[in-house]
């Protein structure tokens, strides 16, 4: 049975309407990366740390969202927004993105040091988009499967239409673009107790999710491990956040399992069905995927979409 997801009051049906295209296709690098919860967990935590390095974003999130009271729920909702942009029908993605933009339009304030911020500041929109793109790509590359320079080019190109809808003026085209943005903002980056509080939230996330505490700690340390060294140093995240070899091995093993096991009703499964593919399409070998995409019945469905 299809599961209809909810985000910001919008009902998102990833399985319908049949044939409705997403902003990326089933053969995309984005569909490959975003199906893996290990990559999303590690990449998502790393992205938040990179965002919180800038006091303007840190204050905006901490003062104007449910993060302090409901960090897990807030993170899950953010993850769902990403899923909609990758797997959802384009009309549904546009509705959700407009909802997010409308919400962000009301967010403004001042940091403790007196710097004014607005959530729709183009510089901040660019950085938030950049941290997510870099975080998910790097986490998949380090903990799931190696990605090629061509994968990198395709991945960022696939994300550009959605980034533009969010108001991003300078979408990434490669990892080098991320580092260029980072270098520009680096003088603003600083250590803050909220960064450690955020990591503690994920270390103890098992209380709410039922996952072992050791997994939360491993994800938090893995996220720190993929931060550029200069950012980790600025944030003061020392050796207590070093990822232990056994934890690294465990995360890679879980990432490998997640590549082959299709969770029932998950957005990648429902989106595949919407496009006339088996629900476990993304969890098959790359060769098997190519054979399915080449079948006349799939080609016919795409021509009618």
In short:
The chain has 305 residues and is mainly α. 62% of the residues lie in helices and 5% in strands. It contains 16 helices and four strands.
Q: Helices and strands, in N-to-C order?
A: EEHHHHHEEHHHHHHHHHHH
Number of domains: 1
The chain-level structural class is: mainly alpha
Order of neighbouring strands in the sheet with most strands: 1-2
Distance between the ends: 23 Å
Output the number of helix runs.
Answer: 16
Overall geometry comes to globular
Beta-strand proportion = under 5%
Characteristic terms for this protein:
single chain, 305 residues, mainly alpha, two-stranded antiparallel ribbon, 16 helices, 4 strands, globular
Can you characterise this structure?
This protein has about 300 residues and is mainly α. The chain has one domain. Helices cover about 60% and strands about 5% of the residues. The protein contains 16 helices and 4 strands. A two-stranded antiparallel ribbon has the order 1-2. Strands 3-4 form a two-stranded antiparallel sheet. A hairpin with a 2-residue loop joins strand 1 and strand 2. Helix 2 packs across helix 11. The protein is globular, with a radius of gyration of 19 Å.
Topology:
Blueprint lengths: L3 E4 L2 E4 L15 H6 L2 H16 L2 H10 L6 H17 L2 H15 L3 E3 L5 E3 L3 H22 L5 H17 L9 H11 L7 H11 L2 H4 L3 H13 L3 H7 L9 H14 L8 H8 L11 H8 L2 H9 L1
Antiparallel strand pairs: 1-2, 3-4
